[in-house]
Write a structure and sequence with these properties.
The complex is a heterodimer of chains A (244) and B (308). Chain A has 244 residues and is an alpha/beta fold. Chain A has one domain: Rossmann fold. Helices cover 37% and strands 26% of the residues of chain A. In chain A, strands 6-7-8-3-9-10 form a six-stranded mixed β-sheet, sandwiched between helices. A four-stranded antiparallel β-sheet of chain A has the order 2-1-4-5, with helices on one face. Chain B contains three helices and 21 strands. In chain B, helix 2 crosses helix 3. By secondary structure, chain B is mainly beta. The two termini of chain B are 33 Å apart. In chain B, 10% of the residues lie in helices and 57% in strands. Chain B folds into two domains: 164 residues, no CATH class; 113 residues, no CATH class. The chains are: A alpha/beta (244), B mainly beta (308). The interface between A and B is medium-sized, with 24 and 22 residues. Bound molecules: adenosine-5'-diphosphate and magnesium ion. The site of magnesium ion has 4 residues of chain A, from helix 1.
Chain lengths: 244, 308
């Protein structure tokens, strides 16, 4: 489904180039859920942006369904079937939750359909459907709306960047259910979730640990879990897991 | 029952959301002539005798009634100044829909300057909606220079919705308001300019009585080579609260000048001004593009939402 081949990404800074991703190669087969984890600053969000076309790799290429999409822009990739839930969702003055869901589904979804999409992420639909996606929403509400818009697209490849961030415990339980359900009904699609949460890592078909811009380790949850918590590699998932 | 042609109907829809002759009191002015007028038991519309315009008198205590006074200009080169005075009696609660649409297919400028005065008596409340619209592909300009003067007696309130989204080449809008004790003014202005259009909007609000409040908010978008100026002044002469806000998006080579002014002449006057001008945030465009919209489509959605 998705193939990332020798992708590097660097940005120029005052004191020369800064390498954010170095020679990353990854494959996400159809019908699989891949979870990417690793310390903050490791390059996870950057990789997600490269997949969505928001950033372009400085080297390497990206294939989707066998087609080289490295030179496709954001819109073209979206239309090809890639959906992306931002780590930090965007606010819009004057655009309502309903409008955003309609834009996401590309059709004039009825209020009932939109409500269904929202209740999946634990939002009482009636209260939210006509709210503007602006500063009046809390971070957690915004995050859940962002997740709902991506689920609503029913894309071939859905990428979620830290969906758990800013979400309270009750909603988090719900979220796990949503991802489990997505995993179970995956059919011909694939899912990538960037996460620090043990419970999300546990439902992965494969886990990739991204660290200092490189693939540090990869494997199934059973293969990786015994060692995932040693301080040398990633501490974040374990710390978060203990908290909940 | 006036006979309206297709063009008149189209403009009525744009400026007053009217698909047929409105309920309640109305006057439809088309190319300087009244083509339909109705007074009701509580709302009297009388043409002025000295100048062009109307006296509109609303009886005290009138509730849930409306007045529509749309203006249509279709003759290229027509320039008119119209004086409308509204007297809103004590305790009344009414909707007033004004608005002007100009269709100019000719090469001469068309201009309508509406001078509106509102005398809102004690405890009365008015919702006022004014839409301006222009169309036609002639070289003649479509010009609208409205002047609105509002006098709110003690405890009176007025909510004004002013919209100019399309097709007006030049506008110089001036709004002056004087508020008594406990009076309340809310203004929601939405403005979009494109091409070489120019729009100036000036507010001068005096809060003269204890407990008066004013909230003047303008949202605007300046596209292409257009120019806007938002000039809002609130003067607090008593214990009062005033807030003005200018929230604008600039695109292309558009220019916007926001000129805030607050004057507090009483130690208990609390006045606030906010202004923000900037281009569409890149992240907003990117988000909508990840939903499959092109950059243009994304821009359009963001602008439409912003002005909705
Ligand atoms: N456009 C950019 N310019 C400069 N530095 C960037 C840019 N994008 C990301 N970075 C840096 O790259 C590193 C990886 O960031 P990110 O992909 O957000 O990591 P993660 O999501 O794993 O926390 C960080 O050090 C971040 O500051
Ligand atoms: Mg990140």
């Amino acid at each position: 489904m998705l193939e990332i081949k020798n992708v590097s990404f660097s940005v120029s800074e005052n004191d020369g180039d800064k390498e954010i991703l170095r020679d990353v190669s990854l494959t996400v087969p159809a019908r699989k859920l891949l979870v990417i984890t690793g310390p903050n600053g490791g390059g996870k969000s950057t990789l997600a942006k490269l997949i969505a076309g928001i950033e372009r790799p400085t080297a390497g290429s990206i294939f989707f369904d066998g087609e080289d999409i490295t030179d496709l822009n954001i819109t073209e990739r979206a239309r090809a079937g890639i959906a992306f839930a931002f780590q930090h969702p965007v606010r819009f003055k004057g655009i309502r939750v309903l409008d955003l869901l309609r834009l996401a589904t590309g059709k004039n979804a009825s209020v009932a359909e939109a409500c269904e999409m929202l209740s999946q992420v634990g939002l009482c639909a009636k209260e939210y459907i006509n709210r503007e996606v602006n500063d009046s929403l809390s971070g957690g509400e915004l995050k859940r709306i962002e997740i709902a818009t991506v689920i609503a697209r029913g894309a071939k490849l859905s990428v979620f960047d830290e969906p758990e961030a800013g979400i309270d415990l009750w909603s988090f339980q719900n979220l796990i259910k949503v991802f489990r359900k997505m995993r179970n009904e995956i059919r011909d699609s694939s899912i990538i979730i960037i996460s620090h949460q043990e419970r999300i890592l546990r439902i992965a078909d494969e886990i990739v640990v991204l660290k200092d811009g490189r693939v540090d380790r990869r494997g199934t949850p059973d293969e990786l879990f015994p060692n995932l918590c040693d301080a040398a590699s990633v501490s974040a998932p374990c710390r978060m897991a203990e908290e909940d | 029952m006036p006979e309206l042609n297709q063009l008149q109907k189209k403009i009525l829809e744009e400026v007053a959301d009217l698909h047929k002759v409105p309920e309640g009191a109305y006057n439809i002015r088309s190319d300087s002539k009244s083509v339909g007028r109705r007074s009701t038991e509580n709302i009297e519309i009388v043409p002025k005798t000295d100048v062009s315009g109307l006296d509109i008198r609303i009886r005290p205590g009138t509730k849930n009634e409306s007045v529509h006074i749309p203006v249509i200009l279709t003759e290229s080169g027509l320039r008119e100044t119209v004086y409308n005075d509204f007297y809103i009696g004590e305790g009344a609660d009414v909707l007033i829909v004004a608005g002007c649409g100009i269709d100019n297919c000719g090469n001469q400028d068309s201009e309508h300057d509406g001078i509106h005065r509102f005398f809102v008596e004690r405890g009365a409340s008015v919702r006022y909606v004014e839409k301006h619209y222009g169309q036609g592909d002639g070289r003649g300009k479509r010009i609208l220079n409205p002047v609105t003067e509002v006098t709110l007696a003690d405890g009176a309130s007025m909510e004004m919705e002013m919209v100019q989204i399309k097709g007006v080449d030049d506008t110089d809008r001036r709004t002056v308001a004087k508020l008594g004790a406990g009076a309340k003014l809310v203004v929601r202005e939405r403005l979009m300019t494109h091409g070489e259009q120019r729009a100036l909007s000036t507010y001068d609000v005096e809060l003269n009585g204890k407990g008066a409040t004013a909230d003047v908010v303008s949202r605007s978008v300046a596209k292409d080579d257009s120019l806007q100026r938002f000039d809002a002044k609130i003067t607090g002469n008593a214990e009062c609260r005033g807030h003005t806000e200018c929230d604008s998006i600039i695109m292309d080579r558009g220019r916007i000048l926001a000129v805030p002014a607050l004057e507090a002449n009483d130690v208990d006057a609390a006045l606030v001004h906010e202004a923000a001008i900037g281009k569409i945030a890149g992240a907003q465009l990117i988000k909508l593009m990840t939903l499959g919209l092109t950059e243009r489509e994304a821009e359009e959605q963001i602008v439409n939402g912003f002005l909705s």
